[in-house]
Amino acid sequence: MMGWQVTDATIADLARGAAVLGTGGGGDPYIGGLIASQALARYGPVNAVTVDELPDDALVITVALMGAPTVLIEKPPNLNAVVGPIETLGAYLGRRVSHVACLEAGGVNSTIPVAAAAVLGLPLLDADGMGRAFPELQMVLPTLYGIAASPLALADEKGNVVVLQTVDNMWTERIARVACVEMGSVVPFAGFSMSGVQARDSLVPGSLRRCVEIGAGIRGARDAKNDPVQRVVEQLGGRTLFAGKVVDVQRATTKGFARGFARIEGGTGILTLQFQNEHLIAELAGSTLATTPDLIIVLEHDSGEPITTEALRYGLRVRVIAAPADPRWHSAAGLALVGPRYFGYEMPAHRFDGTIAPAP
């Protein structure tokens, strides 16, 4: 499959599909769509290229927002802040950046790179570093391949710019998170610079195209008077976990994360979702139905629109579905990085189908 173009007509489907894969995190798709549409209107469409089209010596830079999605609603970044870290990192490395890439699939973090690519006139890589969203910076597949997050550049709307050079990706997360909080709890960053060879090995290929297809599938099912939630289940190869009404949400923004839980009441009891930006655990009547690293997704009951953790509220009628993650996340190293125990839940990882499978 060869490259394609991201246009303003593509953005709504891209943002919607990315919010589905974002498992409740990755930022508000509406805000991300607005930022990308603004950049595309001013600078024109963006060429998306596949990993197979990358030259071996390409310089691929990932760009994303770090911080609490709850804060992003009040303080979306401007375009200068979005492109600033990429320009800073290119100057720091002494090389011309050749491609922009997404670090995660999420409502904002799959569209912010579109805006950056448009402003800078660079091609966008049709791939991402997770195949979903996770809350911490080191939680990407490139970490499993030994690719360093640093040098990492952060910039805010005030003009502050920070470049970090750290000993490993965990330290990048720890130091960058402190800087993020001091810079307003939401900050654009650029990092994980890699060659074309490294990008082909470590990223999830075709994920932006997949986001567009998921978003278009939801829209198409609605237009055809079909069930959009079932359409998502089929596209992801997942299953429906639960349907009901949100009866309780407890959420707080702490240390740059939106942490909390939601309870959803339905015919078979009350489902509890635990989240840290993204949904991590789904439990019903004392049984664990699914856990990180597989995808736990909340969709509006009738429209199929994805609902982020910051948008969950009392009275919403929703359906919760689970879907498989990239299989690399179920390796021993992957589970150590993003499994339930990392987040403080003393349980093994449960696959999206409810089974407990040993790491390969």
From TrEMBL:
Q: Which Pfam families match?
A: S-Me-THD_C, S-Me-THD_N
Give residue ranges for domain S-Me-THD N-terminal. Answer: 11-165
The record, for InterPro entries, names:
S-Me-THD-like_C, S-Me-THD_C_sf, S-Me-THD_N, S-Me-THD_N_sf
Query: SUPFAM superfamilies, per this entry?
Result: CV3147-like
List each copy of the S-Me-THD-like C-terminal domain by range: 168-349
Protein name, entry field: Hydantoinase
